[in-house]
Fold:
Amino acid sequence: MGGLGYVRWAPGTVASLAAVPLVPALGWVAARSPIAYAAIVLGVPALAIWAAAGAEAALGERDAGCIVVDELSGMVVASCVVPATWPAAVLVFVLFRLFDIWKPVPIRTIDQRCRGGLGVVGDDLVAGIYAGVAARCLLALA
Structure:
């Protein structure tokens, strides 16, 4: 993601923060072209899995900290269930980082047992689902 993985402090958080504008932007796309929206929501994680596998092979390291395309994928997945607003985007960011760091079941299991690109990205996809659903619930209560 444009070198964000090489930020010295918390590259995953920085990459997730950089993905925040995608939440309202994806809502805009969804309203205008459901086909383009579906292509993005399905394509980003697929490309991320492929890219993460290649990065792991090139770096010779499992889930290297400089691989942050998984955070982008998690944020894209989380955006699927929340309104396309900036408050929702900020809430998704906070919740995504919480779940990504905390790693409740099955996130931790995926992180520990899956290998390759799916291992790098899979836990973030589930963290994105958790963050999106939790954000949706919290926004409904507000």
In short: Residues 4-141 form one domain. The mean pLDDT is 95. The CA atoms of residues 18 and 54 lie 22 Å apart.
